[in-house]
Amino acid sequence: MAPDTVSLRYFLVLAQELNFTRAAARIGIAQPALSARMRRLEKELGNALLVRDTRSVVLTAAGAALAESAPPALAALDRAWDTARRAGAGELGTLRVGYSLSAGAETAPALVDKVMRDSPGLEVGAVPMATPEISAAVAEGRIDAGITRGEQQGRGVRRYLLRRERTGVQLARHHPLAGHPEIEIADAAAYPLRLPDSAANPVIHDQLAALFRDIRPHPRFHTPAVSFDMSQRDLRDGLTLAPAGEAAVTAAPAGLTWRPLRGAPGLTFHLVLPREQSPLHRRIRAVARTLAHELHWLPG
Hints:
By secondary structure, the protein is of the alpha/beta class. It folds into three domains: 5-88, Orthogonal Bundle (Arc Repressor Mutant, subunit A); 93-164 and 268-294, D-Maltodextrin-Binding Protein, domain 2, CATH 3.40.190; 167-265, Periplasmic binding protein-like II (D-Maltodextrin-Binding Protein, domain 2, 3-Layer(aba) Sandwich), CATH 3.40.190.10. 38% of the residues lie in helices and 21% in strands. The protein contains nine helices and twelve strands. Strand 8, helix 8 (202-210) and strand 9 (221-222) form a beta-alpha-beta unit. Helix 1 packs across helix 3 and helix 2 packs across helix 3 (31-45). It starts with a helix and ends in a 6-residue tail after the last helix.
């Protein structure tokens, strides 16, 4: 029969104090209750642990052996208990995250860093993916969580709003509109507009294109030959503008800046999790909620 661990911990206090009165006071129970615990422990073991008299307590050979061997055993039990608790809370194991390339400038790194700081027992791996593939990868269990730009469609998943950002344009610092704190949509439409590749993220492509749907004459749209060219060399001509969310400020190369578009609806990032969720998924959702609050990602 396994010993009563509470009584075993009480015994270790008594083995240090060698006095029932002091041990009971240190534990915070009555002395008769401590005596009853020790008699029950000796009965379970089948050996005397203590030699008692009116003035002192002496450990028997069995008691001395137990006093020496019990602390590491209890420490191992505590570690096992803590491991089980942390696993049940989603704080242990492996977390695989897939994210839209455009989320890699700020949103995905911030969430991954927060997860790693809050749950050091998790082994986290995050890789960029084509945005249209992320929901399917989560639903099929190829990744545990996704971060998408825009609310992507997909079965077998749940989407949670992670971040809302203002919509604006990236442009050269020497562009004629760069001196404006805000830019009118019609004024931006007078210049060539670079849109993200529709195949890479059709939701965001269509949302940005829709900003200029009612502008006449129609703006001149183009898609760069190299998707996600971080050098943004096509904007350096000083004419072309690139509609983009405010997070673009973080990754803007030297010589470029960002300005909000007046009256434009915001862009969003979403956390994608499977419909049936484990403690790990619930943990990630809780961390994401905390991060969004800390960084004011969901104003209003």
